[in-house]
Amino acid sequence: MKENLTIQDIATRAGVSKTTVSRYLNGKYGNMSLKTKAKIKAIIEEVGYRPSKQAQYLKSKKSYLLGLLVADIENLYSAYLIKSVQDALEGTDYQILIMNTNNSKKAEQKALQKLLDQNIDGILLQPVSTNIEDFKLLQDAAIPTILIDRSLVNSHWTTVQSNNYQVTKELANHIIQLGYQRIIHVSEPIENISPRVERYDGMRVEAMTQNIPLDLVELTQKGYSLEAYLAAHPLKEKTAFFAANGNALYEVVATLKRLGLEIPKDCGVSGFDDWFWAELVPPGITTIHQNPHQIGLRAAELLVAEIQEGIPVERIEIPSELHIRHSL
């Protein structure tokens, strides 16, 4: 039967001191006898006692709250990240507060302030920009921070992300080796968002090295679409599209379908992000498969380690791989 007992009540029933029960609850057995441990354990199980987490947190001066800021919660990648972070924290005392910044610097600053007001112990940050000066609030607070998916220039925080540049360069070479004479790189606005910059640089460098024309089409919220671009620049040479993330890939596939263009007969298609539907779209889209689950797990584990013992600053790239299908 569960009773509303205190540590003192448990101590009285066990015939030991309150300090001894407290040491048992904190796993500090020291010279505690097996008989005493067994007696305390039996009483706790009998009455269904659970120590007050709030009291423990107040005593340790920790909140055991972590913040996770994602740039776009509607992006499927964010769903994978969130789940992986929750998986990593399973079995720990830490809880996660999730904030969406909607790729807005203003929203990001507000979210950071709200998290700091909660006295959080650490932050997992998918930053909106690459400028470290935009994060003075976080620097001044000296909160343990791990950057996730996106990097910052001259940052003193550990970053966990995909190997965007190298794997995109490999895909560019694959496209060119298949005989394509023109590549159209389709991306959400690149601005200073590091994965978009790195993927464009990987595609651009390889295309330039092999003397292949590369066009950049940025999908903006101001109405400029891929369809408008193709109306002004019709396909003539053997052309392959590269979509820089899952959202861009969806736009490419949808646009080609509206225009009645067949993949790969009329043009080739490839993309970054191997979302579940990529292999279902005929004839199966060649993609770069990154590992958001491993990125989230590693970042969360590093943040806990940073809070508890400190870690050296490093840039960790989780390998991605090409999934070759029949769209090129």
From TrEMBL:
It holds the Pfam family Peripla_BP_3. One of its GO terms (molecular function) is transcription cis-regulatory region binding. It comes from Enterococcus canis. The lineage of its organism: Bacteria, Bacillati, Bacillota, Bacilli, Lactobacillales. Keywords: DNA-binding, Transcription, Transcription regulation. SUPFAM superfamilies: lambda repressor-like DNA-binding domains, Periplasmic binding protein-like I. Residues 5-60 form the HTH lacI-type domain. This is Uncharacterized protein. SMART domains: HTH_LACI. PROSITE patterns: HTH_CROC1, HTH_LACI_1, HTH_LACI_2. Residues 2-50 form the HTH cro/C1-type domain.
